[in-house]
Amino acid sequence: MKRAMIKDLGGTRTKEIDMLRWCSSTALELIGTAGIGHNFEILHGVESEYSDAIKNFFPALAQIAPMRSLFPVVYRMGPSWLQEKLAEWVPNAAIREMKHIVDVQERQAQDILSQKKKALNDANKSKDMNDIMSVLLKANMEAREEDRLPEDQLIGQMNTLIFAGHETTR
């Protein structure tokens, strides 16, 4: 974090530093490394749609909170693909923003999970994988079929871990 902040200052001594942004970015990098064995590279200046989605989650949730009495009705309306289509079609920017946030989280988690599965199948790479998600994934792959977590639950665990670790800085 120190090196990234110095680089951001660009040699000037009077620039304001947004410590909340730096702490939030550092928290995401730390939970990414220790929790799921993934480097988001935010501290190296790489823009992250995932980090932006996490940061915007609570503001988007606050905007749709007045509509929460409708959620059980929508939940009972049918399969998840239909619910997703309804969220796209509803004429409400806050609901569409929340759907975008959830889609970004889902896509990033699926990409990371696919990379981890490939790495675990490579004996040379799997020896060095000691992050929380790798341990969970190894145990899941070694479990009997009826005891395994389905992929959507693994993705849910990953998103929960990242979100909880990242949002502790707010």
Write the layout of secondary structure elements.
Layout: H1 2-9, H2 19-36, H3 49-64, H4 71-75, H5 80-89, H6 93-121, H7 123-126, H8 132-142, H9 151-166
Helix pairs in contact: 2-9, 3-6, 6-9
Descriptive notes:
This protein is mostly helical. The chain has one domain (49-169). It contains 9 helices and no strands. The two termini are 18 Å apart. One of its GO terms (molecular function) is heme binding. Belongs to the cytochrome P450 family. Keywords: Heme, Iron, Metal-binding, Monooxygenase, Oxidoreductase. Pfam families: p450 (PF00067).
The largest pleated sheet is described as: none
Total individual domains: 1
Gyration radius over CA: 19 Å
Mean pLDDT: 83
Shape: flat
Unreliably modeled segments: none
- Identify the quaternary structure here: single chain
Strand content: under 5%
Q: What is the string of helix and strand elements?
A: HHHHHHHHH
Secondary-structure-derived class? mainly alpha
Pfam families: p450 (PF00067)
Pathway: Secondary metabolite biosynthesis
Family: Belongs to the cytochrome P450 family.
Cofactor: heme
